Amino acid sequence: RRLRNEGALVEQWNAAHPEARLRSVALHTLPITQQVELLQRTRVMVGINGGQINALFFLPSGATLAAIFAMRWTDQNFGYVYHSWLTHRGVRYLQYDVTSQIADQDTPVASRRED
Predict the structure, then answer these.
(1) What percent of the chain has pLDDT over 90?
(2) DSSP calls for 47-104
(3) Which residue has the higher pLDDT, 106 or 9?
(4) Given the DSSP bridges, would you call strands 64-70 and 92-100 parallel, antiparallel or unpaired?
(5) 65 pairs with which residues across the strands?
(6) Phi first, then psi: what are they for 76, rounded to 5°?
(7) Quick check: helix, strand or coil at residue 25?
(8) Which residue has the higher pLDDT, 91 or 70?
(9) Which positions ≥6 away from 73 have C-beta within 8 Å?
(10) Distance CA 58, CA 36 (A)
(11) CA distances from 102 to 23, 37, 107 (A)
């Protein structure tokens, strides 16, 4: 799973917020030691539900995770498990449930849950 326009989103964000630059990282391409070091310095992590988002367990206290879920997954307990564990660790958890409108596949419809 991935965002179709990830590069464009990062560029737009960085142009609008030079004081808080984003970086796109494919964790699976890094050795595990580099993944853990990077995550332990991460202040905000945005990720799509799937294997790589489980790296959230290495985020430091005070970090924020924004998890993007496809609606078909939200009936399961992923969000609850993440929220419970992260709250215990002092990490803020935001969950975004995203689907596409049937009439226009490129227009996302999102609902936000903040715990």
Answers:
(1) 24
(2) EESSGGGGGGGGPPTT-EEEEEEEGGGTTSSHHHHHHHHHHHHT-EEEEEEEEE-SS-
(3) 9
(4) parallel
(5) 45, 93
(6) -85, 175
(7) coil
(8) 91
(9) 49
(10) 6
(11) 31, 41, 9
The DSSP 8-state label assigned to residue 41 in this structure reads T
The rounded distance, in Å, linking the Cα atoms of 63 and 47 is 14
d(CA 36, CA 74): 27
Q: Cα separation of 26 and 30, whole Å?
A: 8
Q: Give the chain's largest Cα–Cα span.
A: 44
What single-letter DSSP state applies at residue 107?
Answer: S
Whether 86 contacts 55, CB under 8 Å: no
Residue length of the chain: 115
User: What sign has the CA pseudo-torsion 26, 16, 97, 5?
Assistant: negative
Task: Give the residue carrying structure tokens 């799509």.
Answer: 48
pLDDT tens-digit readout, 32-41: 999 999 999 9
- Which two tokens mark 42? 């991460």
